[in-house]
Amino acid sequence: MLNKNSCFSHTIGLFYQSSSISLIIVFLQVLSACQPKAESQDRSLENALATFVLEDDFQIELIAGEPLVADPVDMVIDEQGRMFVVEMHGYPLDLSGSGKVKRLSDTDGDGVMDESVIFADNLVVPTGIMRWKKGVIVTDPPNVYYLEDSNGDGKADIKQTLLTGFALSNPQHNVNSPKLALDNWIYLGHEPAVTTTIYEDLLGDKGTDVYYPEKPELNRLPQNAGGRSIRFKPATYDLELLSSRTQFGHTADAYGHRFLVNNSNHIIQEVLSAEYLDRNQHLVITGVTQSSSDHGSGAEVFPITINPQHQLLTDLGVMTSACGLTAYLGGAFPERYNQSTFVSEPVSNLVHVDFVKEDGTGFIASREHPDKEFLASTDAWFRPVNAYVGPDGALYILDYYRQIIEHPEWMAEEVVQSGALYNGTDQGRIYRITPKGTSTIDWSDKLTMDKASPEELLSKLSHKNAWWRMNAQRLIVDQRPESLIPQLKDLVISGESPMGRLHALWTLQGIGALDKETVASSLKDPVAGIRENAVKLAELFLAQSPEFAENLLALENDPDPKVRFQLMQTLGYIESESAFQVRKALLFKDIEDKWVQLAALSAPFSESSKLINPVLDQYTATPAYNGLVQRMASMVGASMDEQAIYTMVQRATRKNTQNKYDWQPALLRGLAQGIKSKKQAGSHGTSAGLLATTVFEHPSIEVKGAAIQVLEGIGLGNVKGKAQVLSKAKEIALNKTLTGEERSMGIRFLALGNNADYEDMLVGLVDVVEPLPVQLAAFRTLSKSQGNSFSQLVLDRWDSFTPELRDAAISAMMMNGERIAVLLGALEDGVIQKATIGWRRSVGLMANKDETLRLRARAILTRPEGESEKIIATYQPALELSGTIQAGATVFQKNCAICHQMGEDQGIAFGPDLSSLKNRRAASIMSDILNPNLSIADGYDLWEVELQNGELHQGLISSETPTAINLRNAGGIDKSISRANIKTLKLVEMSAMPTGLEQSISLQEMADLLAYIRKSE
Questions:
Q1: Which burial class, exposed, middle or buried, applies to 238 when counting CB atoms under 10 A from its CB (0-12, 13-18, 19+)?
Q2: 3-class secondary structure per residue, 979-1007
Q3: 905 phi and psi angles, rounded to 5 deg
Q4: pLDDT tens digits, residue range 297-350?
Q5: Under 8 Å between Cβ of 170 and 7
Q6: Those residues with Cβ within 8 angstroms of residue 852's Cβ, 6 or more apart along the chain or in another chain
Q7: 263 contacts 320 by C-beta, under 8 angstroms
Q8: What is the C-alpha to C-alpha distance for residues 455 and 809, in angstroms, rounded to an integer?
Q9: Which residues face 84 on adjacent strands?
Q10: Is residue 154 within 8 Å of residue 104, measured between CB atoms?
Q11: What CA–CA distance (Å, rounded) separates 18 from 12?
Q12: At residue 123, what are phi and psi to the nearest 5 degrees?
């Protein structure tokens, strides 16, 4: 929801999204809407419905509006038909406690709410609500509250803090959307706190440990839950991290598959769950989600908003503020909507629908129409932020109805001071969408589900509308009627409704009455989704009843890929030969699916490592097999198990008569990857000796190179004949009859010894007459030496260095403070040119931990005050020039493609996709290009990671899991880093976009680039 690129992400047309060439959000000019101006559009409640264009065969009703409700962001209808709505008045800067929960009623039965009662107030920035016990759960960071009216006066007199510790940062990133799931857990949407500079005092809170105040020592989670979503059970104080994060909103389909959302990607599936990833500490997984949309991240949308002077959108745009993702499980819409999801897009004033279908272990979400939305409004103040499916199967849309919903962190000061930030804060609407001909609401304060008998609740578990199913399940779990247990079991086994069987299964689990026999029956259910859930529930019985595993093993040949996928994950808990054989068969059956591979390897290391030999025995030269082999070997390397590593080295270095070594390099590279950054345990002398022999005797140069990679991790140690092999390596390095690549391997081998013994020789090899691989290998070996001799070599020979050597030199000069001081001196003296440093290393220098070096670097590398404004002024004529898309494509490829995509086919996905900028003003885009350091775009912060072994790395955190992060650098280069190897992780509060592009882009090229980005000439 409230993200500068999400549901509360923009003014009425401020600009499209934080993804810009500079990765920076800079708001230079707000629409004239932010200034007093006569408007012709009627924004009254009476005219609201006239502004909509809705999908054929549907109707829309206004059921609530101001003054009864204002700033609505979430709602719930309880079992009595009482409607509770969360109002967030404080966005964006008011933390005075203006938030409320209201109860709305239709007292005269005309289908429109006419009474509003404040149920709870003094909330700060409340973000979500759900029914629980006798009251409601409300997320209001830093807390999650339970609110209850115990005396019947209509107002909450009980306010219990269930959880606390969440960050209270910019509201778009705060904890939100509590939802009770099929598995009886409550799930919370959550993501990391965003960096803020201007409002640090107000919104700079980063949170604490997340915990239950009633049980502060029980189940504590790390600070702000590590920026991940969580699930919890208040009654038992259970509290767990999930494997992923979501922005504002999350949802699940009828069988419990979870879907997430962020600003530009409107439907994301969580594929791997946290509980399975925690079993194998040696497996590094950096991504657990995948986009389901077949029409892209930043998908095209089709607004119909009028009054273009109040916004920058044309009739075409992109998804840039997706929020409130809602699976439609209401059963009242036409059949084609039975597997659909709705997502709000407030910037474009519309609601988007996708039809979701099965696709192996995942799903594919497709739009209904190629050029039309489910619901769109001509009113630029229509701000849909959430949706809810009610007891009548209707889709309820919550309209925040604001003029400006961009956070002022990314606004021009004149806008903040204009008084327009809170225009509309006293307004808000709730709409009801139903098939044409549906009668008005008849549920307001008229439901009696709270008085239903257990048998009546049982019947609702089979209802076609999930609202009834979930509320019936919740009430039965609350009441725990023992008399209902036999009937629940009968429903699981013989119920006609698949949904009834499924909910009865989880209801039994919720009341602690689920038994093995019932689960065994469900494992044979004709519906795949029920079998899949039964496999997961079987995990409850494996520890006490190992023989129950036989019921799972019988599903080896299940026809459904999701059942097989869940089976693979569940079997990871079973240590038996029969379970291993089934896991192996499942792996080979679906080996092309990366998620199946990861599920197989998520088993404890002792079990997952058994798959290595079968995989190598059946290896075929495909990307799927290569990736699997390398990941398996990486696990072994990370284990630092000497015998396991030696066994793998033996196999990876074996020579054969066919001279086919397709998998051996991958095996060795994987070993090296796992060993790197680990503290050495033992000598690995036997492995080192075999690898040394391989370097000199193996016929495959790829195997030789990979063997050296492993040696670089474990060292030569006490290898027998160490002096002789080093001498042989020296001969290879100097042998000019060999290729440069072969000689470079000799040099890399020498680096395993004492570099001081070969320094003079290596210096001699850093010469323009030598092949580049030889020069680079010698140079990189010298860079590991102590003292100042290397720094002097760089300065003495800088003028003769080719670009690759210069790049290697700069990287080496940043290895320690002494060299950095020399480098800064060379920059000051003009010996080394500033342009050679590059943006990533410039940021590293200007963020150095040493204050003296940091300030010195900033003085050298930053522009003088006012220079950026002068440069922007210089480029103003480019805005008047005619640019061409074709020429702009060339400029993009030359200057931008290394970091950005333009659609799915062009460029590299380091920074955001620039296709989302086509509706922004040219002046705003150009300003971002030329002055990238005004503010850091959400999600594109630069991070510095210090490893346990002292290595430093910088980049964007493109994805993360409970056990690892993925660091991405320019060029799309990814580096997976195990959390166990991280010493420190800190944010570098600087732009990841370099200054100085004006040095390489002319006025005409700028005009062409702007035309290309905006797709206009």
A1: middle
A2: HHHEEEEEEECCCCCCCCHHHCCCHHHHH
A3: -105, -10
A4: 888 899 998 863 333 333 347 888 899 999 999 999 999 999 999 999 998 999
A5: no
A6: none
A7: yes
A8: 77
A9: 76, 103
A10: no
A11: 15
A12: -90, 155
Q: Which residue has the tokens 């070996």?
A: 781
CA distance 965 to 113: 48
Q: Hey, what's the torsion of the CAs at 982, 987, 992, 996, to 10 degrees? A: -120
Local structure of residue 482 (DSSP, 8 states):
G
> With helix as H, strand as E and coil as C, how does 717-729 read?
CCCCCHHHHHHHH
- Tell me the CA distances in angstroms from 716 to 144, 725, 866, 951, one per residue in order: 56, 10, 56, 21
C-alpha 624/C-alpha 629 separation (Å) is 9
The predicted pLDDT at position 501 comes to 98
Q: ∠ CA 864-866-869 to the nearest 5 degrees?
A: 125
Owner of token pair 């657990």: 288
Tokens at residue 862, please? 């930053």
CA atoms of 823 and 811, how far apart (whole Å): 10
Determine phi and psi for 600, rounding to 5 degrees: -65, -40
The two structure tokens encoding residue 974: 């990814």
Phi and psi dihedrals of 158, rounded to 5?
-115, 125
Q: What tokens were used for 603?
A: 């088993």
967 forms beta bridges with 957, 975
**CA distance linking residue 669 with residue 675, whole number of Å:** 10
Give the residue from 869, 883, 893, 918 showing the smallest Cα distance to 1003: 883
Length of the chain as a residue count: 1017
First-to-last C-alpha distance (Å) of the chain: 34
The CB density around residue 362, as the number of other CB atoms within 10 Å, is 18
| Pair 349, 307: CB distance under 8 Å | no
Residue 933 tokens read as: 């350091």
206 contacts 224 by C-beta, under 8 angstroms? yes
Would residue 271 be called left, alpha or beta, if left means φ above 0 and alpha means ψ between -120 and 50 degrees? alpha
CA distance 842 to 836: 10
pLDDT in tens, 823-880: 999 999 989 988 778 766 777 788 787 889 988 988 888 766 566 677 778 888 888 8
**Is the bond leading into 864 cis (omega within 30 degrees of zero)?**
no
Q: Which two tokens stand for residue 886?
A: 């074709």
- Residues 475 and 921: their CA atoms lie apart, in Å, by 53
Give the integer Cα–Cα distance in Å for 964 and 677: 13
Q: Where do we find the tokens 């272990």?
A: 361
Contact 239, 314 (CB under 8 A): no
| 759-782 confidence digits (pLDDT tens) | 899 999 998 888 889 999 999 999
Region of poorest pLDDT, from 214-223, 335-344, 745-754: 745-754
Among 765, 740, 748, 756, smallest CA distance to 707 is for 748
CB 518 within 8 A of CB 533: no
pLDDT level of residue 21 (50, 70, 90 thresholds): very low
Q: Count of alpha carbons within 13 Å of 542, Cβ hemisphere only? A: 19
- Of 756, 755, 686, 744, the closest CA to residue 714 belongs to 686
In degrees to the nearest 10, what's the CA dihedral of 314, 317, 323, 327? 120
| Interval 19-26 mean pLDDT | 29
Joined tokens for residue 276: 């399975």
- As a dihedral over the C-alpha atoms of residue 677, residue 682, residue 683, residue 685, rounded to 10 degrees, the angle is -110
Own/partner contacts of 807-816, CB < 8 Å, gap of 24 or more, are 807/838, 808/776, 808/779, 808/780, 808/783, 809/779, 810/836, 810/837, 810/838, 810/841, 811/841, 812/779, 812/780, 812/783, 814/841, 814/844, 814/845, 815/783
